[in-house]
Fold this protein.
Amino acid sequence: MIPVRAYWRLLKKYLRPLRARVVLLAVLLFTGIAFQVANPQLIRAFIDGAQEGQDISRLLSYAAIFILLAVGHQALSVLSTYFAEQVGWTATNEMRAELAEHLLELDMSFHKTKTPGELIERIDGDVTTLSNFFSAFVIHVVGNAVLLASVIFLMWREHPLIGIGMTVFALVAGVLMIGLQAVAIPWWREVRGKRAEFFGFLGEQLGGTEDIRANGAVPYMMHRFTLLHREWLPLEVRGRWGFSMLWATSIAVYVFGLALVFGMGSRLLTAGTITIGSVYLVFHYTELIRHPIDQIRTQMEDLQKAGAGIARVEELFAARTQLPETGTGRLPTGPLALEFDGVTFAYRDDASDGESVLDGVDLAMEPGRVLGLLGRTGSGKSTMARLVTRLYDPTNGVIRVGGSDLRDIERDDRRARVGMVTQEVQLFRATVRDNLTFFDSSVDDDHIWQVLLELGLGDWVQGLPDGLDAMLESGSGGLSAGQAQLLAFARIFLRDPGLVILDEASSRLDPATEVLIERAVDRLLTDRTGIVIAHRLATVDRADDILILERGRVVEHGPREALAADPESRFATLLRTGMEELLA
Amino acid sequence: MTTRRIPTARLGLGLIKYQKGRYAANVFAWASIWVMPMIPALITKAFFDRITGEQTAGFDVPTLVWLVVVYAFGRITVMFLGMWNDAHLMFRIATLMRRNMLERIFELPGAQSMKESPGEAISRFRDDVDENVESFSWTVDMIGLFVFTGLAIWILVGIDGLLTALVFGPSIAVVYLAAIARHRIKKYREASREATGRITEALGETFGSVQAIKVAGAEKPMIAHFRMLNDRRRSAAIKDKVLTAMLESLFWNTINIGTGIILIVAASSMRSGEFTVGEFAVFVYFLGFVTDAGFFLGLFIARYQQAAVSFGRMVALMGDDAPPLRLVEPVPLHLTGEIQPPDVVPPHLAPLETLEVRDLTFHYPASDDGIDDVSFAVPAGSFTVITGRVGAGKTTLLRAILGLVKPQRGEVLWNGEVVEEPAEFFIPPRSAYTPQVPRLFSMSLMENLLMGRLDHETEVQSALASAVMEPDVDAMPEGLATLVGPMGVRLSGGQVQRSATARMFVRRPDLLVFDDVSSALDVETERVLWERLFRERSGVTSLVVSHRHPALQRADQIVVMHQGRVAAIGRLNDLLATSPEFRALWEGEAE
């Protein structure tokens, strides 16, 4: 069935502000239908008038009104389309934005299980079916149903026999077409499935020409091409068969209508019950209602499909974050103290096994100190960073920043004062400016330039064809890993936090960029509290303290110089043997 | 893009010639389907003339009803046959074009086969083929349409010549213009599609960097940006929809105004009984059909231009050297009947004695990257390692040797003879290759390893063992039957790399070419790989890109590349003594 109620439940909130336009739309639609139904009546009056030898000026005025109503109907239908689209898009755009905002608010345990592709499909794909639903449902289903009903009503008014005939005609046509469609649609679905399979195959072939050529697999791949087409051909032929059946029904229905008019028309005319004009009227109306039946039929499938999309959207709106933002506290200015107090953490989602990633971590950092964080991959370094930025809350224990529990601090304040630079920098396909400010247009250019100059990026940005307005590419932005990291530094500098976490890029950089990065890191750590996840010896040199993590536990923690001087310490051993394995 | 002249008509004729019989059958069927609606028009006229008493001779009403039913059966039968024939014809034509394109792409140098991105290329295989098949199918409809329109106008002129000219002249013109204007819709549709592209892109980027956005507290501005993109799409989409609705209205208006004109002009003659109700019904009936025909003609002309563009895009995909007619070259498609699986390994004629590279030079178009004057020799059974910094030209060198790019200068010699067509020549059983980022395809692991080879299980097992892939396969739930590739189980980079290595071993070539296995394998696995290679496949010749110590230590010769040129050639100890570039690489790796 068509999921009208679910649809209405979801969209009424967004349609309410557009009430006036919805009412206007309904008026336009119904007026248009009235014009359309009235028109054949004029032809009838004309024919009868001509047969009776009425005044020529009278006949001409029928013709003139006919043209007027016809053109008026078309104008109204264009207007209705405009308003239906306008209302549909405005309402669903609002819904898209709210859904995207809602999803962004959800915590990382949600996002870890959803790929961006899936969310695109939900926010754009499913919501778009809602938008189509609106215009298709209003214009095609409601509009055509009203048209159908009014024509049948007018037929009953002509003569009960004609009314019965017409009702049967509409019912038979509708049932036949909808029934056959139910048979034909699964056939087409299979054709589409095979098509998708072939193009999936093709995409892989085009991306792997090197492997295929150089390993002599061209004949094999062409063989697979043939096999896929051999499976596809019978499906395609059967799909066309379904289409033929629908067309055949359409021809048969037309002939049925014609026979009905011929039979009843001649009988009633001979009996003198109706005029020749009325016979023509019935003939004309039979033509008129074929179209709406067809339209309702073609819309049925789309509307049913929308059901699944609507359910998925509702489900997403129902998801709740596990990290409610209720804090109201403010952080002090300047460098911030950081404290881990018995922090234990385990990821609680489908992708994790529930094992503790951090286990009773204690740490106290004075404001302005820099901590070098070392450990193998999976030792919990990145998790510590995620807890400090409150992407997750600890399972047990407390994290305090600037003396207060992270959960009690107001969200915007926390984000402004705690910054993080990750190894992988995601850039948007947007201008340099938007990439730095995350599309926040309230940041002024002078401030941006000041930051860029400070980081040594000034020359580079000035050298771009449009300066701050130059477009960057998506992903790595067509930039080197070093340049991308510098941009990430600039993002942080624009906000001037009191605590920064820096996950240094591990890829090799060219010497020029390396110098710039070194300088930027120096600047970044001046007058700020810092945690550096280090991949280079030079960066560890900068730390005041060293903390080594192993399987979620602190195995060594102390001032760097003291640890380096103690030959028994792990840190000193690391320095002696080279750090490769620990800096992975 | 090059501006090559595309002989659209000749390409179309090529397709017709390819399926002469089916095309002729289609012309016959569809011309009939188009012309047949003439019959109910005449029956309707006869009916109205009969009941108004205009005509007393001829068929009575029950006979007319029977005639209509017979007509319906006839038309439905022809339609089913026509549709069946059309499905077969169009499918074959589409398959032919796709097959010729894919075959041609496989002929081009593998690493630079297309200028287009795979996404763009797929659109040519899908959208451009569909577009052309559709236009091709319409050529048949046009024939039927012309016959029908001709007959209709002949009948109408017989009734009233002046009225015919008054009603149909303008309507055909208007509708024809409207159809031409439809290409404007395409522009709006493209704008709307582009706006949608921006939205999905923005959503993808946003949800791909949720963490960064959260840490930066940038949700609000990101959503504001998203709203702005949404607004843009709304206006683009509305323009598209409204213009479509307007054109459709224009079509209906033409019919309506035409009907109105008939009423006005015929008012007096109808009153006097010169113009009968039956004639009126025929006029209105044909008005719909003829307007439809005009609309269709306009669409066809727009389509024809579009077909030229699509042909152009498909021909361009096949590279600059392919003649355009290659696209429609007749080849057997084997869509029905028996087929033989291909024998992918041709007989072995000249086992490798030496492979020699002379003055090989290649640069990517509009780029400084490439290799210059590279020369060295690889004796049979040796282990040669190519090493160098990032961007030194190692991968390009391998590709140039194997013909995966087309060198501008220099040659490759197999046993002292110049290889004329390296891309045709360097395939199993002579050589096999694992690229730096190998691709597996969405098939079972077994099929990925064999890729058409008919091989024994034991040999696949031994290839897997040599490639250090056995334990991984054992751990897979369905072993070798596990579906891998983009649609299958996700393998790690190392597993893909080792599967591709096994794929190479299965082909048992004389020359194994590896591009930088170390990028995905850890030091230990790489060491085991080389060890097994030496132990189990000692006779084979290897050409390997690597910078890892285990490979360099085993090498019979090391080719050091620097900025696209050979900086030094020799064994490990010699190079450590003589080549500062190599020493830097060796020590860099140690740190």
Observations:
- The mean pLDDT of chain B is 87.
